[in-house]
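User: Please run a holo structure prediction.
Assistant: Happy to. Please share the sequence and the ligand.
User: Here you go; the ligand is uracil.
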Amino acid sequence: MRLDKFICHHTGISRADAKRVLKQEMVTVDEAVIKDPGFKVTDDMDVELEGRPLGAVKPRYFMLNKVANTLCSTIDEEYPSVLSYMDLPNTKGLHIAGRLDVDTTGLVLITDDGQWSHQITSPKKACMKRYRAWLAEPLVADAEKQFAEGVQLHNELELTKPAILERISDTEVLLSISEGKYHQVKRMFAAMDNKVMQLHREQIGEIALDPDLEEGEWRELTDAEINSVWQK
Ligand code: URA
């Protein structure tokens, strides 16, 4: 991994700030000052920022199959936080990469790596999310076309970005979107005078919900899943 990216990963600072600390000779690799942001860091190297070792604590990455009536927030409010399902010794520092509504179930990604979750949540990265939705009313005939062209959400200036709708039946669909506006899927169907009765997230980018995970269960991400979010 490039040294500037390595620093961002382990400190949460921006790429520009990482370059700045390198320029200011604040970073050593195996005790030698390195200023080159593109220097390749390997697993066996000791990287220090102002004498503080980086990388001693590896970032953590998990997927969880969210239960309905749980909150994608790290603070417990009316409903329990999804993190309360994770019997980890230390959930401090973990955050959710792309929240779901209280009543939505399915794939939630959890990490303490801010740069990694940025790849998923930043509108600029246009990360695809796939949802299965069950609807109150039969879908209109041209729903696929409307979603491909973009629909007008209430209180938004612009049309939604092109989305892919797959019809399983007239009231069950798969919808892939690359945006993450507030209540986006529910609002997209509301724009068609329909209503989402149940919503389940199946995939984020290339990471699919593991079918072996029962509701409320979680597991660590594999290296392939972790690496998949970095754009090639
Ligand atoms: N869109 C919604 O409307 N709700 C969610 O939880 C996720 C996407």
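Residues 100-101, 104, 183-186, 199 surround uracil (CB under 6 Å).
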